[in-house]
Amino acid sequence: MDHQGTAEERFRALHESTFADLLRFVERRVPPDEAEDIVSTVYLTAWRRHTELPEDARPWLFAVARRTMANQTRGWLRRRALDVRLTATEQHEVPDGSSGTAARLDLQRAWRSLSAADREVLALVAFDGLTSDQAATVLSIRRSTFTMRLARARQRLQAALEPVPPRTLQELS
Amino acid sequence: MNDLEELAVLDPARHNEPTDAQWNRSRAFVERTMASAPASRPRWLAAGAVTVAAAALGVAGAVVVPALFPGATQQAIASWTAVPTARTGDQVLDQAKTCGKSDVEGSSTQVRPSDVILAEQRGDATMIIMRKTNGHIVECLGVGDAGFASMGLTDGTPLPPPPAGKLTLETRSSYGDGDDMFSNIIGLADPGVTSIELRLNDGGTIQASVKDGWWGAWWPGPEGGEGTDEFTVTAHTATGKTTYLPSEMP
């Protein structure tokens, strides 16, 4: 097999092993009808950079996807984070009285109270299943910086889940 | 179950699997991409006295080029300007003829001003992107009408155009040695791109040239050939801008 054939076979194998994860990564962050175009752009970039691809290519692909989405998302530069969607059905979910549903709604409320930057850091681990090393690659930051951001985001998530004391009328003096 | 595991219930894509149609579309896109885009990028190669100190990135099958004449590099770097002056084909016809005569990608039998796609002047140095008689596109860089370095960019096969308002990167490299080292970057630009600037991590800003679907710049220093992202590229359009790290440019 010549070099070109080897490169093409390797790239096909990369596509087969990463497409589903990459599509999910993008679908979490942009409307579904835009996701496939983003993913195509990522593979176009990857092919043109295939000699530079690291052995663990998935975070590299996610990083390219993140930047591609960021460049197409108005307002990203203000937030400096790429926000993660919640599904539309969850926005309108009605409690059915079960403890599981109530806990989930609490979690949703806590999630929405966080900043976009906190949500992005948490999502890279909780949704995308990345290690801190991989997530740091996606964000182009040092691992220690990511670990610090993740710890702070988790603290703020926990704080948002703490029960809030009921509001009561204050006696006027 | 910890807090991160609990969060997974909010994942909007946790049950998503690509459909057969999505797999088919993506596989077909990958095949088209590999068929239409070269697996390697061109680069400068020295055939003379000048040493390649830092090779171009991600390249194979590079094109042999004549070396920049000794002394021309120093003159080019000494007179370099961050903002180029655009030149027409008529204005650089002598340099274009020199470029056309070189055997990089085949010699041109005749060179006309209309063969010049993009030309810029930075101090004493002229950079040209031009089409040869056989349709191949080359870049030439030099001082005056002699001492050109040259690099093949395409073999005449149309390259996939960038999306609206976006850029591609065809090649980046550095060339030379020590104080004579310079960097070079060339790519395609959608017609909606009105201007392009490079920002080096050390704070320097370089205005690139953009014309007729191509963009390019050169500057003193090694950044173009380094594997890390030592600069950013920003493409401006009438409605906004897009900033790239070189490693992430398609």
UniProtKB/TrEMBL annotation, chain A:
<protein>
    <submittedName>
        <fullName>RNA polymerase sigma factor</fullName>
    </submittedName>
</protein>
<keyword id="KW-0731">Sigma factor</keyword>
<feature type="domain" description="RNA polymerase sigma factor 70 region 4 type 2">
    <location>
        <begin position="105"/>
        <end position="157"/>
    </location>
</feature>
<dbReference type="Pfam" id="PF08281">
    <property type="entry name" value="Sigma70_r4_2"/>
</dbReference>
<keyword id="KW-0805">Transcription regulation</keyword>
<dbReference type="InterPro" id="IPR013249">
    <property type="entry name" value="RNA_pol_sigma70_r4_t2"/>
</dbReference>
<dbReference type="InterPro" id="IPR014284">
    <property type="entry name" value="RNA_pol_sigma-70_dom"/>
</dbReference>
<dbReference type="InterPro" id="IPR039425">
    <property type="entry name" value="RNA_pol_sigma-70-like"/>
</dbReference>
<dbReference type="InterPro" id="IPR013325">
    <property type="entry name" value="RNA_pol_sigma_r2"/>
</dbReference>
<keyword id="KW-0804">Transcription</keyword>
<dbReference type="InterPro" id="IPR036388">
    <property type="entry name" value="WH-like_DNA-bd_sf"/>
</dbReference>
<dbReference type="InterPro" id="IPR013324">
    <property type="entry name" value="RNA_pol_sigma_r3/r4-like"/>
</dbReference>
<comment type="similarity">
    <text>Belongs to the sigma-70 factor family. ECF subfamily.</text>
</comment>
TrEMBL record, chain B:
<keyword id="KW-0812">Transmembrane</keyword>
<keyword id="KW-1133">Transmembrane helix</keyword>
<protein>
    <submittedName>
        <fullName>Uncharacterized protein</fullName>
    </submittedName>
</protein>
<keyword id="KW-0472">Membrane</keyword>
<feature type="transmembrane region" description="Helical">
    <location>
        <begin position="44"/>
        <end position="69"/>
    </location>
</feature>
